[in-house]
Amino acid sequence: MENTWFIIVNPNAGKGLVAKRLKWLCSRLEQKDIAFVVEKSKAKDHATKLVQAGIARGLRNIIAVGGDGTNNEVVNGIMNQRIIPSQDIRYALLPSGTGNDWIKEYGIPMDLDAWFEMFVKGKTFLQDVGLVSYQSEEGVEKKRYFVNVAGMSYDAFVVREMDLLKKPISSRLAYLLYGLSYVFRYKIPQAQVWIDEKYKTGKYYLINAGICRYSGGGMQLVPHARPADGRLAITLAGHLTKLGVLLNSYRFYNGTIGGHSKVDTFYAKTIRVNHEKAPILLEVDGEYLGTTPVEMKVIKGALQVVVP
């Protein structure tokens, strides 16, 4: 079983793209005489349970076929199991979602032939993993691992509102337009922030913590993030006016967000965030989770990923 690849599939990702990519992947693996088994997730967070069950059966190599949401669920399965060290499991993502932000950090190809060439070469990289504690909408304290970007305040508000649309966002432009349209509905909250115990308070339009750089369809809200340096890249955007947000939206994409006078960037081992009045929203890897109080930390070198 140790040489068998466990393929986890989200059949709802990528608007039908997954089924085509899965058929192609199985064919190529068979041509190379590479053993594999396939499981399909049936509901939210089901992929996490499938991964844990697969590892318990002795599977040590995992391919996820899906987008950033599937990626997060599979990683949580790897990190939540206690059978073997998480970094002893080889993990590859065949990107098949709509955003595909995490792969941008490594240049993991969307092209199938290029992806399979990368896969066969078998080069791997030990990436850091973030762990966040938060409060669910039901008031229950929960934990979640993330491998890309955790976003609070307006970032999480946009993700929650898009979830309510009940339809996938099909392009980078669509994500930007939806995101900017919500500016006029959002009231910036007063936050209490501890960055490695250094205390700050204020109204923050964005509070982001990154392992990798890209989120929201290619935005760089934490352009200083490095996936293996044992630190979270932190971006705090202060009380920007609505016009200021619109005029500086180009900074979201070109890596210059830290150049704005009301934006500070840091590195930290931990960050804690609490609210003064209204709870502050939280999303990780594009998935809305809940609210403050929030605490994040980084686990160095916890995930072995297949990269170009």
Figure out the total of helices: 8
Overall CATH class of the largest domain: Mainly Beta
Average of pLDDT? 93
Question: What would the CATH topology of the largest domain be?
Answer: Tumour Suppressor Smad4
Number of spatially distinct domains: 2
Q: How can the largest sheet be summarized?
A: 15 strands, mixed
Number of strands: 15
Structural class: alpha+beta
> What sort of overall outline do the alpha carbons produce when their principal axes are compared?
globular
| Straight-line distance between termini | 25 Å
What is the string of helix and strand elements? EHEHEHEHEEEHHEEEEHHEEEE
Percent helix, as a range, is 25-40%
Portion of residues in beta strands equals 25-35%
> Which architecture name of the largest domain does CATH use?
Sandwich
Q: Mind telling me the C-alpha Rg?
A: 19 Å
Q: Provide the low-confidence segments as ranges.
A: none
Walkthrough of the structure:
- The protein has 308 residues and is of the alpha+beta class.
- The protein has 2 domains: 5-97, Rossmann fold (3-Layer(aba) Sandwich), CATH 3.40.50; 129-299, Tumour Suppressor Smad4 (Sandwich), CATH 2.60.200.40.
- It has 8 helices and 15 strands.
- The longest helix has 15 residues, at 17-31.
- The mean pLDDT is 93.
